[in-house]
Automatic annotation (TrEMBL):
<dbReference type="Pfam" id="PF00912">
    <property type="entry name" value="Transgly"/>
</dbReference>
<keyword id="KW-0812">Transmembrane</keyword>
<keyword id="KW-0573">Peptidoglycan synthesis</keyword>
<feature type="domain" description="Penicillin-binding protein transpeptidase">
    <location>
        <begin position="362"/>
        <end position="633"/>
    </location>
</feature>
<dbReference type="InterPro" id="IPR050396">
    <property type="entry name" value="Glycosyltr_51/Transpeptidase"/>
</dbReference>
<comment type="similarity">
    <text>In the N-terminal section; belongs to the glycosyltransferase 51 family.</text>
</comment>
<feature type="compositionally biased region" description="Gly residues">
    <location>
        <begin position="703"/>
        <end position="732"/>
    </location>
</feature>
<dbReference type="InterPro" id="IPR001264">
    <property type="entry name" value="Glyco_trans_51"/>
</dbReference>
<dbReference type="GO" id="GO:0009002">
    <property type="term" value="F:serine-type D-Ala-D-Ala carboxypeptidase activity"/>
</dbReference>
<dbReference type="GO" id="GO:0008955">
    <property type="term" value="F:peptidoglycan glycosyltransferase activity"/>
</dbReference>
<dbReference type="GO" id="GO:0006508">
    <property type="term" value="P:proteolysis"/>
</dbReference>
<dbReference type="InterPro" id="IPR023346">
    <property type="entry name" value="Lysozyme-like_dom_sf"/>
</dbReference>
<keyword id="KW-0328">Glycosyltransferase</keyword>
<keyword id="KW-0808">Transferase</keyword>
<feature type="domain" description="Glycosyl transferase family 51">
    <location>
        <begin position="77"/>
        <end position="261"/>
    </location>
</feature>
<dbReference type="GO" id="GO:0008658">
    <property type="term" value="F:penicillin binding"/>
</dbReference>
<dbReference type="GO" id="GO:0009252">
    <property type="term" value="P:peptidoglycan biosynthetic process"/>
</dbReference>
Length: 762
């Protein structure tokens, strides 16, 4: 007799159980006839469905979330990422032992009953009525599949997951109705295939293929009988029967499945006995999920790919729609990452900067003319441990990076390009005194003017006294020359040129309308600087950076191609202007302070060093006609000055752009370009400007600004170059003078964003 409530009569659950039992016996469920309203049984208040009739007619089955594979440009795997580790396979690619094992232990009458197993329902209803609750289910594989669909649809939302798995009569009724639909539409084989692909097998493995790989490092189609029995046994309680953490309990459960397979005739008793004697035979593959597993130090590039996908409208109009596609997975993303370049970048970074150093380095390589990001690496690895980080030091804040770093004198070529594009002759001469006030007023973009008085700046050395022409001023990175230049042409042409070259602040703000931007006071990222300089390399064509070449998505057993963003190229400057800049910068890596960055004979290259005031950052940005790269070294927190510092095991009194970033750039580019063509630049003749009677004997004799050693013409004229004006003479000696730009430390406290803060050095 059913147990009565204390107040007399049957409880709502008991009433429902009794009614459902009658309905099932009458064949109502099998016929798909609607049941009366559950609300009439007093269950609506408990969150159950209001009516069997009111349920939607069709079960919405979301595409199963799967793993996404990110590939390099040659098809090699960079990393796999997923919200759920799953690889959907066809039934023919699942071992027959696996198919039989799951049916034997979960629903041995699967091929005999319809959507509902009458015997099982009656047995469960009677037990539940006796207990006054829902203590036992009678779910067929079809009903379990339906429940898993609800769980899949809930995703990672804990509230929705709880609703999809709660033990209520309402959920069971919902499963019953949809199970009927699924049986009619799919048939037994497809239901079994879907079930094996959707169910959870523990250890982050969803679906039988992922489970086979996780526990046995093999495909599901190659599972042996004892292996299939182990996996089938896990399903009922993935935590309890986890073979990795409880081998004894998992073995007992496996043997139970083997015995059940023998009882239903899937295998003989002798086969079952033999299989029970075998060890579990685990060959566990650890879960490999996320960019932290990326090869060759490409974790940050992997993360950039994710950020690019989630931020680009081509993948969906809203952030939510893009996130849904990403989490659904099943994507095969071919990227622009060049494995040779990536390996070279990471090796160079490792050789020159230790992850435990007070400062870090970040480097990025792009392809001129296409915008393809070829490599991206940094000294502090992708991770959560000590001296590790998830901040991508190579990119802007919006793409997972930081606030950026002042580029110093690497910004000066942009000022020169703006001036040349506006018609300034390449041999333009300015007075360029050693020390001066910023000229005022200086025209701004809005029609106003910068008009601050008494803002002082100096050159690197007192011997740097003009007049200078553009060639010599670029060679020596003369601060006063470039400030006079921007004051002459106005700020707007410079910020416009920067925008055309894709050179923007890392925090997304606007470049300040102040003449001090000529000295690199605006924080920028290595990717921005590398891609900006690629504009010079491609003779004036700027191309937006891209990381994704193609995407294929597998949904419901079918594969389709997704549209991907393309690089947009536009002319930022004339070929003549670009060729002139290339000519000006070529000598830096051949004979000047960038000499340590030179790529040697047969590989034409150009570039510029930069060191910021107080030495919080040092740069080398350079390029060949077919590859451009930027290297930054500094403290991401902007606290550690690079003076009296050890980097990569080498002590430095003061760090210069050519001294630490330069060799990193040289080594990474040498490896990246090894075996590739070495095209020439289109150089132009730049006549000397009329600098009057200023004594140039020292320069012409190879003494540069007086810091060199009896050099030849190249050692003096080009040798006393940027970033502190290192001069190399014929005897090979070099000297490193002090910083080029000096402003009292407390003079512009907190003013860097307006362009009047600590400026860039040469």
């Amino acid at each position: 007799m059913p147990k009565k409530r204390s107040g007399g009569g049957l409880s709502p659950t008991q009433q429902a159980a009794k009614f459902l039992g009658v309905s099932v016996l009458a064949g109502a469920v099998l016929a798909g006839i609607a049941l009366p309203a559950v609300g009439a049984l007093g269950l609506a208040a408990k969150g159950s469905v209001e009516s069997f009739d009111e349920l939607p007619a069709n079960l919405k089955t979301p595409p199963l979330s799967q793993r996404t594979t990110i590939l390099d440009a040659e098809g090699g795997t960079i990393a796999t990422v997923y919200s759920r580790d799953r690889t959907v396979v066809d039934l023919k690619d699942i071992s027959p032992y696996m198919q039989k094992a799951i049916v034997a232990i979960e629903d041995s009458r699967f091929y005999e009953h319809g959507a509902v197993d009458l015997k099982g329902v009656l047995r469960a209803l009677n037990k539940n009525a006796q207990s006054g609750g829902v203590s036992e289910g009678a779910s067929t594989l079809t009903q379990q599949y339906v429940k898993n669909v609800f769980v899949e649809e809930a995703g990672d939302d804990p509230t929705k997951v709880a609703q999809a798995t709660q033990q209520t009569l309402g959920r069971k009724i919902r499963e019953l109705k949809y199970a009927i639909q699924v049986e009619e539409e799919l048939g037994k084989k497809k239901i079994l295939e879907n079930y094996l692909n959707i169910t959870f097998f523990g250890q982050q493995a969803y679906g039988v293929e992922a489970a086979a790989q996780r526990y046995f490092s093999k495909s599901a189609k190659n599972l042996k009988v004892q292996e299939a029995a182990l996996l089938a046994g896990i399903v009922q309680s993935p935590s309890r029967y986890d073979p990795v953490n409880d081998e004894a309990e998992a073995t007992k459960r496996r043997n139970t499945v083997l015995q059940r397979m023998a009882e239903v005739g899937d295998i003989s008793q002798a086969q079952a006995a033999e299989a029970k004697k075998k060890p579990l035979g685990l060959k566990v593959s650890k879960p490999k999920n996320g960019c932290i597993t990326a090869v060759k130090g490409s974790g940050f590039f992997c993360d950039y790919v994710r950020a690019a996908f989630l931020s680009d409208p081509v993948f969906g109009k809203s952030k939510e729609s893009r996130a849904k596609i990403w989490n659904q997975g099943g994507l095969t993303i071919k990227t622009t990452l060049d494995p040779q370049a990536q390996e070279s970048v990471q090796q160079s970074v490792k050789d020159h900067v230790n992850k435990s150093d007070d400062v870090a380095t970040a480097a990025t390589v792009v392809e001129p003319g296409t915008g393809k990001i070829l490599a991206m690496g940094q000294s502090r690895p992708y991770g959560f441990g000590k001296n590790e980080t998830q901040i991508n030091l190579s990119v802007d804040a919006a793409m997972g990076g930081g606030a950026g770093y002042q580029p110093g004198s690497t910004f000066k070529p942009i000022v020169a390009a703006a001036a040349l594009e506006g018609g300034m002759p390449a041999n333009k001469v300015y007075g360029s005194p050693y020390e001066m006030d910023y000229p005022a007023p200086v025209a701004q973009c809005d029609g106003g003017s910068w008009n601050e008085q008494g803002v002082r700046l100096t050159n690197e050395n007192e011997s740097e006294v003009g007049p200078y022409d553009m060639k010599e001023a670029t060679a020596k990175s003369v601060n006063t020359y470039f400030v006079e230049m921007i004051s002459d042409i106005g700020i707007c042409p410079v910020t416009d040129m920067a925008k055309k070259m894709g050179v923007e602040r890392a925090d997304g703000g606007k470049i300040a309308q102040a003449p001090s931007i000529a000295l690199g006071t605006q924080e920028m990222s290595p990717l921005t600087m590398a891609n900006g300089y690629a504009t010079f390399a491609s003779r004036g064509m700027y191309c937006t950076p891209i990381a994704i070449e193609s995407i294929n998505q597998r949904v419901g057993g079918k594969s389709k191609s997704l549209e991907v963003p393309k690089s947009t190229c536009s002319r930022a400057m004339s070929e003549q202007t670009a060729d002139t800049i290339n000519t000006l910068l070529r000598g830096v890596v051949e004979d000047g302070t960038g000499q340590q960055a030179g790529l040697g004979a047969g590989r034409p290259s150009a570039g510029k060093t930069g060191t910021t005031d107080e030495r919080y950052a040092a740069w080398f940005v350079g390029y060949t006609p077919n590859m451009a790269g930027a290297v930054w070294v500094g403290d991401p927190a902007h606290k550690r000055k690079m003076q009296d510092i050890t980097i990569g095991g080498v002590w430095h009194e003061k760090v210069f752009g050519g001294q630490v970033p330069g060799p990193i750039w040289r080594d990474m580019m040498s490896g990246a370009l090894d075996g590739r063509e070495a095209p020439e630049f289109n150089l132009v003749d730049i006549p000397r400007g009329d600098t009057g009677d200023r004594d140039r004997d020292d320069e012409d004799n190879g003494n540069g600004d007086g810091n060199g050693n009896n050099g030849n013409n190249n050692g003096g004229l080009i040798g006393g170059l940027v970033d502190g004006g290192t001069t190399t003479g014929t005897d090979g000696g070099t000297t490193q003078p002090s910083p080029t730009f000096s402003i009292p430390e407390d003079f512009f406290q907190g003013q860097t964003n307006t362009g009047n803060g600590n400026g860039g050095r040469g």
